[in-house]
């Protein structure tokens, strides 16, 4: 913006790390904690729901969700998330970040509780109600993605901006971990209180009536962390960058920031040519395509292929663990015992692979940079996926399960110390303030489109190639081994598309978005115009003389 650069933005870029930065991380981060908990806890309880509502008398295997029901239950929240990312991302640029932020959290609280209260006279009725509330839960979660990233990026200084945004996103790891821990506690408590035989001994008695409370309590717990931060969100001021650059109220921006940050702001100097309205390009313009078209292509494609692999691994790890024999045959356990062992396996993966990966990103992103962390993550995800797929038969043999779990955990580690974090961070840094939330929403929605492909596609693709050995109701698939090859190919594509994404380490948001260049171009045009007018005036004066 040259000489007319807003003084409040300079103050934010160079501000020292303060208490409110950490407060903002907690407020935004608890939203992501809730997002991850709500999105992934459903994968832990689907086998239990299948036993409760889809038992088949005389069957040698416990009840399971039919293919269409399982696809809907696992994937409907992603459909809502995709819609919410586009809608709230756009709304955040139109109405402001703060006004929309509380709406998303309120929706998440209500729908988390409602999901656990799903009702109906038949299994189909219960599943329909559950899917309805999970769609709207996902809609609220979707809004949290662009708003949390944008708010944190606009509060942070340029030196530690990546660390702050990564810390918000890292709360997702704790959400996944907490989902496993809560499931362990609830299922373990009910298992010890209500004893039951294995399915092979007593098919009906293996699922106690009280098991219906278990999955409901687990889903409803998602409302607790969201409710804890609702009041804090209501008290957050609008970000200074939105107020100054989009709402064009520099004085208000200075006032808002002075309330929460100790920065040297002078209201009289906080002007951004308030008398002058510069011509600004929109999303669907040639100027945007020229400046940011490849950037948006890079952020959308990398997030899309990442989430195909990432959500396939997360949602169906229980099926992969069963396939390699880490979780015993379902018929040898009662319903709550099976849930407990699924949660234990998921918690171990989250604790050893998922959570550490997020915090490695927090520690190193402003040292290594976004680009190289993303390249490294995609590369090692490809390597470890191939390491699982090529000798797949070896991993299924007795005694080799620990090696499989270590390799599998490393793919999660490099997903989170890699593209799962950076694809969230970069779109909040490289687009103009007036389009930042919208472009982040578009990028995140592309990711959720990948999650939908992963959640629906992997469910069918991972089925045994022999239809007789596939799960009840499913057609023959390509098998877990070939599915892992497909996921490795997705990671390799992500590596290539990362080349379209710019490095934003150490640069201000205005430098990355090109808003300084826009202002300089306007200044040059004004100078040229003025020089032209002066020349005309002199010519007229000489003629008159």
TrEMBL record:
Q: Which PROSITE patterns match?
A: MFS
Q: Listed GO cellular component terms? A: membrane
Give the matching Pfam families. Answer: Sugar_tr
Q: Where is the composition biased (Basic and acidic residues)?
A: 506-515, 524-545
Query: Positions of the region Disordered?
Result: 506-545
- Transmembrane stretches, by residue range? 20-45, 100-119, 125-143, 164-186, 213-231, 342-365, 371-390, 402-421, 441-462, 483-502
Domain of life per record: Eukaryota
Q: Where in the cell is it found?
A: Membrane
- Membrane topology designation: Multi-pass membrane protein
Please name the GO terms of the biological process aspect recorded for this protein, alphabetically: phosphate ion transport
This protein is called H(+)/Pi cotransporter
């Amino acid at each position: 913006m040259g000489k007319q650069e807003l003084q409040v933005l300079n103050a934010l870029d160079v501000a020292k790390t303060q208490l409110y930065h950490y407060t903002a991380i907690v407020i935004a981060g608890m939203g992501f904690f809730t997002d991850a908990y709500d999105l992934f806890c459903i994968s832990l309880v689907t086998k239990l729901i299948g036993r409760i509502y889809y038992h088949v008398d005389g069957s040698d295997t416990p009840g399971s969700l039919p293919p269409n029901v399982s696809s809907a239950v696992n994937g409907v929240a992603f459909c809502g998330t995709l819609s919410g990312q586009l809608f709230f991302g756009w709304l955040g640029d139109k109405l402001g970040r703060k006004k929309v932020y509380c709406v998303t959290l309120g929706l998440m609280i209500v729908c988390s509780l409602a999901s656990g209260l799903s009702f109906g006279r038949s299994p189909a009725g219960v599943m329909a109600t559950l899917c309805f509330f999970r769609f709207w839960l996902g809609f609220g979660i979707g809004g949290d993605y662009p708003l949390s990233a944008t708010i944190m990026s606009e509060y942070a200084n340029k030196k530690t901006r990546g660390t702050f945004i990564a810390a918000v996103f890292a709360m997702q790891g704790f959400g996944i971990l907490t989902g496993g821990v809560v499931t362990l506690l609830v299922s373990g408590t009910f298992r010890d209180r209500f004893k039951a035989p294995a399915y092979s001994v007593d098919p009906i008695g293996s699922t106690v009536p009280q098991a219906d409370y278990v999955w409901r309590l687990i889903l409803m717990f998602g409302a607790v962390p969201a409710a804890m931060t609702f009041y804090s969100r209501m008290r957050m001021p609008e970000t200074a960058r939105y107020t100054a650059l989009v709402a064009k109220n520099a004085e208000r921006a200075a006032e808002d920031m002075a309330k929460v940050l100790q920065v040297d702001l002078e209201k009289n100097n906080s002007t951004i040519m308030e008398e002058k309205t510069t011509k600004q390009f929109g999303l669907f313009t040639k100027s945007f395509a020229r400046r940011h078209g490849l950037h948006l292509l890079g952020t959308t494609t990398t997030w899309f292929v990442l989430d195909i692999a990432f959500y396939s691994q997360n949602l169906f790890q229980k099926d992969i663990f069963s396939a390699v024999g880490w979780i015993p045959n379902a018929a040898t356990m009662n319903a709550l015992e099976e849930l407990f062992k699924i949660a234990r396996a998921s918690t171990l993966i989250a604790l050893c692979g998922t959570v550490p990966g997020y915090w490695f990103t927090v520690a190193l992103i402003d040292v290594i940079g976004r680009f190289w962390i993303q390249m490294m993550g995609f590369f090692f995800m490809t390597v470890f996926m191939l390491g699982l797929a090529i000798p797949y038969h070896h991993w299924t043999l007795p005694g080799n399960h620990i090696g499989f779990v270590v390799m599998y955990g490393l793919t999660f580690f490099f997903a989170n110390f890699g593209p799962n974090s950076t694809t969230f961070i970069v779109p909040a840094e490289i687009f103009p303030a007036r389009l930042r939330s919208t472009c982040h929403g578009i990028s995140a929605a592309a990711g959720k489109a990948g999650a939908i492909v992963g959640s629906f596609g992997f469910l069918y693709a991972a089925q045994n190639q022999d239809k007789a050995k596939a799960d009840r109701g499913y057609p023959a698939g390509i098998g877990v081994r070939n599915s892992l090859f497909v996921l490795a190919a997705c990671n390799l594509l992500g590596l290539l598309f990362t080349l379209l994404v710019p490095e934003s380490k150490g640069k201000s948001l205005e430098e990355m978005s090109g808003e300084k260049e826009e202002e300089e171009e306007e200044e040059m045009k004004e100078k040229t115009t003025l020089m032209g007018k002066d020349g005309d005036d002199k010519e007229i004066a000489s003629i008159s003389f």
